[in-house]
Amino acid sequence: MAELQEVQITEEKPLLPGQTPETHSVETPYGPITFTVYGTPKPKRPAILTYHDVGLNYKSCFQPLFQFADMQEIIQNFVRVHVDAPGMEEGAPVFPLGYQYPSLDQLADMIPCILQYLNFFTIIGVGVGAGAYVLSRYALTHPDTVEGLVLINIDPNAKGWMDWAAHKLTGLTSSIPEMILGHLFSQEELSGNSELIQKYRNIITHAPNLENIELYWNSYNNRRDLNFERGSDITLKCPVMLVVGDQAPHEDAVVECNSKLDPTQTSFLKMADSGGQPQLTQPGKLTEAFKYFLQGMGYMASSCMTRLSRSRTASLTSAASLDGNRSRSRTLSQSSESGPLPSGPPGHTMEVSC
Ligand code: BEZ
């Protein structure tokens, strides 16, 4: 691996005492990568590492979730590393003409440089769309360093010729920003033109780095199959929470992905009324599901979850029992009644502390 070199450090204004995010950039074999660290490393705990989708950066993808009030009780126990895909960081210059943007596999290969630089050993990955693919690829090649994955809107398949034909046809009538919006949001959401849609349409259409965004979009469309196969060696070994909105453009892909992963390690959360970006529209429900996911991994003792445990809004129940027959995957569905999921994936012994 090329020698790591810090090329830039910028500090933003502190949010709270002791919570100053620090933005770093390190060199990798595929060019520099920028990431922002929130919080301080906690001994014997993985870092939460996020990877955003096309058309977004870490803030526009994850800020509503990570700044959600109930989320604070969870994330204060973890250091967070928010990666910006190359050219997506705030103020990124436009890449020169002919610049070879990394493939999604190469983006995954940049992650070890980040972890080595920070001296972090294991992560819980949270990825959306293209970012979910990148983190899954990383988990396939570095399974010992990934303790868990939250994958929102993952499509593990390469585009088939039918998808390419549809993509080309859409490209005849739509601009790149509209195509990306069609990847991020459902048609119903786009035609409803809510404030959220107006905001993201505005962000993407007027992005000063739109050329860079198009390069990340091309890499996403040229992804190869992750080739997940249940029972084969090519599968995710860690606990996985798959998330998709029930109206999301990627619902079928996530359902298929669920069928290919180890059911004893995989939870599937289909969220009602959440559209294409549940982390933007339903941060409360996602926070609660994330809490159960971490509890299942032994990280959040329920006694630590004072405020969240009392919260009875937007709660989730398990549709499948976890404490006996684990031959099928867990499906989490929304309910008005609350009840925590039994915790502890098999073969996973982790500390329970807060
Ligand atoms: C965090 O606390 O991890 C966070 C805060 C703002 C934006 C994104 C993440």
TrEMBL record:
Gene Ontology terms: cellular component: cytoplasm; growth cone
Pfam families: Ndr
Keyword field contains Cytoplasm: yes
SUPFAM superfamilies in alphabetical order: alpha/beta-Hydrolases
InterPro entries referenced in this protein's UniProt entry, alphabetically: AB_hydrolase_fold (IPR029058), NDRG (IPR004142)
Regions crossing the membrane: none
Compartments, as annotated in UniProt: Cell projection, Growth cone; Cytoplasm
Top-level division of the source organism's lineage: Eukaryota
Biological role: Contributes to the regulation of the Wnt signaling pathway. Down-regulates CTNNB1-mediated transcriptional activation of target genes, such as CCND1, and may thereby act as tumor suppressor. May be involved in dendritic cell and neuron differentiation.
PANTHER family reported in the protein's UniProt record: N-MYC DOWNSTREAM REGULATED (PTHR11034)
Full protein name: Protein NDRG2
Gene (name only): NDRG2
